[in-house]
Amino acid sequence: MTVNIETGETEFAEDLAQHEQYEQEFLAYCADNPDVCSPGDVDAAEEELDL
Prior knowledge:
Blueprint: E1 2-4, E2 9-10, H1 16-32, H2 39-49
């Protein structure tokens, strides 16, 4: 899962819980950098987490 769009930093999860943690990191990144993330990126991550 890419957690930083600008740097391309990607994390690889070993299980679902870890993947969900990386999704939360991505959402936090997008909240801090709304000019970088598109609304579709955020919507897709939130939908996967059922937020």
